[in-house]
Recover the amino acids of this structure.
RNA sequence: GCUCCUGUGGUGUAGUCCGGCUAAGCAUACCGCCCUCUCAAGGCGGUGAUCCCGGGUUCAAAUCCCGGCGGGAGCACCA
């Protein structure tokens, strides 16, 4: 050690260039800078082999897909793609109380829209027989038992780390009770429990439920089964038999990893690698069904496609495109840190994508009439896009226009303004209507440039402006603003769903002939 | 309360595993300028982080160790 410090201090006495040249002559290999280049996209997957990666997206068909689903599905797909592997879409439909046929469909539609392509589609409920077999196996091997205690007792025991008498039941009792679950017991009277460790620090290991009785109609299997596996047991079995190599789920499941691996261990089944990532939710835009459902029921929002919501359908209607969502999700990375997702960034990605294809149209809000006294033009051609060749449109004129109230407010008599792409005008009178006179065609940079709509062909339009749904945990009564506006008649010729940039206003998506939804600035 | 996870500019992240090449890259937001008959897009530039705090190890720490603190989650016969 002393020798080392001596040498180091010797070296430190040399100047930087002397050190450098010494290095170059004696140890050139040390100067080679390691590649360490910037990574693009998701981080490499632990233990991933090219062509052998299988991921899965396992939504429960109990609601409409939202941005959270999008994050999971995109990550699942990206990793499968990255390693030339496969993505399985698996509906985790083991609770007939929640599942509905329309949700299976809605999720597929959502993925389709997102452009997430899966290689295989299945339902957990397809494998009920196998799951029963594995359940029985667990009972036979003593790794599970049937518990007939009531809910409260079980919960209390788990909190207090105590075992109940059912845990001590012998093999025959368990087998008999297992069969009784299919016939005799009523819902709530008996569950199969995994024999974990009631003393475990990890509460999920304290003999969690593996099967319970539910007498409800399943959307696919109707009344074929009434003993249903719980999540932990079902995913473990499914992931294993589906050949999943890498499974991803959100952070709140993290404590369940121990259970997941233990179950597979006890069954001697192949174990996928499990990873978790943070949930994606926007500020003031909750994703939870518990919160959204009452909103829809009470009519506080128009439905699951209300543009204020984070559902895929709502995002679509609002004018957010799938590519933007994908870029956005990827920009968040694969991390476990809790984040308040920046909606700004999503909008920015979106804006760049749609800017190129959005037609530019004039639109005025809070319209005020303006009359150009000596107008001589009867028609003008306006370009549909400033850079790209998207054609032109003809607009007929007679000197009677609308301009935005906002713009009108700033005008004073004798002001000169430029009606965009038209001509210059001088204000001569301001009243309930504004009067002006034509002063020339030459473009003058110093004049304010204002968009206009001819009165005779103006199309009445509602602009819906979605705002933050919840402010400080409370429903924001003003979360949806409606603006009365006029736009050009050309609007009527656009397809529904067309993205428009209203000049000096922002991007909007055509929702119907009389309504557009504000996408973003 | 207990257990687990997490903590880099206003925001989201890269780098952290394998300490030096970066007193920290990118994106977004913001501010200028250029371009433009839009407050958009595009181009250029800028402001902004003592890498949660305090110790320690080391010639050298965002990176390793210890101790705090902040945030989140779980503690369901729901996934």
């Amino acid at each position: 050690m002393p020798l080392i410090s001596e040498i180091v201090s010797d070296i430190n006495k040399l100047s930087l260039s002397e050190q450098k040249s010494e290095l170059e002559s004696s140890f050139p290999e040390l100067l080679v800078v390691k590649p360490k280049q910037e990574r693009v996209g998701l981080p490499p997957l632990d233990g991933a082999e090219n062509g052998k990666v299988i991921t899965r997206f396992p939504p429960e068909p109990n609601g409409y897909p939202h941005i959270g689903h999008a994050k999971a599905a995109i990550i699942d797909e990206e990793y499968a793609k990255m390693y030339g592997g496969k993505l399985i879409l698996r509906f985790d439909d083991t609770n007939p109380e929640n599942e509905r046929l329309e949700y299976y469909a809605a999720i597929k539609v959502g993925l389709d829209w997102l452009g997430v392509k899966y290689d295989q589609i299945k339902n957990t409920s397809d494998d009920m027989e196998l799951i029963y077999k594995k359940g029985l196996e667990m009972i036979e091997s003593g790794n599970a038992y049937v518990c007939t205690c009531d809910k409260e007792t079980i919960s209390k025991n788990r909190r207090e780390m105590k075992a109940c008498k059912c845990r001590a039941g012998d093999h025959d009792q368990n087998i008999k009770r297992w069969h009784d679950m299919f016939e005799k017991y009523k819902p709530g009277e008996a569950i199969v429990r995994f024999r974990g460790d009631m003393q475990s620090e990890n509460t999920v290991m304290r003999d969690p439920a593996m099967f319970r009785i539910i007498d409800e109609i399943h959307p696919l299997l109707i009344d074929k089964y009434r003993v249903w596996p719980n999540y932990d047991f079902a995913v473990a079995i499914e992931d294993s038999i589906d050949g999943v190599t890498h499974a991803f789920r959100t952070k709140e499941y993290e404590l369940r990893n121990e259970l997941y691996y233990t179950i597979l261990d006890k069954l001697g089944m192949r174990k996928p690698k499990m990873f978790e990532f943070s949930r994606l939710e926007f500020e003031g835009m909750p994703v939870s069904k518990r919160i959204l459902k009452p909103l829809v029921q009470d009519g506080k929002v128009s439905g699951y496609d209300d543009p204020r919501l984070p559902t895929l359908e709502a995002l679509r209607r609002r004018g957010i495109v799938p590519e933007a969502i994908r870029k956005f999700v990827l920009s968040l990375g694969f991390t476990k840190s809790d984040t308040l997702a920046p909606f700004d960034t999503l909008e920015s990605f979106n804006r760049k994508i749609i800017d190129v294809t959005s037609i530019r149209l004039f639109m005025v809000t809070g319209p005020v009439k303006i009359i150009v006294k000596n107008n001589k033009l009867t028609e003008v051609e306006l370009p549909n896009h400033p850079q790209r060749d998207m054609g032109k449109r003809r607009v007929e004129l007679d000197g009677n226009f609308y301009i935005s109230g906002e713009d009108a407010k700033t005008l004073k008599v004798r002001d000169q303004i430029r009606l965009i792409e038209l001509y210059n005008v001088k204000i001569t009178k301001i009243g309930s209507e504004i009067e002006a006179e034509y002063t020339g065609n030459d473009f003058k940079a110093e004049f304010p440039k204002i968009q206009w709509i001819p009165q005779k062909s103006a199309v009445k339009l509602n602009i819906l402006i979605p705002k933050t749904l919840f402010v400080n945990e409370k429903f924001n009564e003003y979360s949806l603003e409606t603006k009365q506006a006029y736009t050009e008649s050309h609007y009527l010729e656009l397809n529904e769903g067309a993205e428009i940039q209203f000049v000096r206003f922002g991007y909007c998506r055509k929702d119907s002939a009389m309504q557009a939804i504000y996408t973003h600035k």
Summary: Residues 379 and 396 of chain A are 4 Å apart (CA to CA). Confidence is low (pLDDT under 50) at residues 1-36 of chain A. Chain A has three domains: 54-277, 289-355, 359-520.
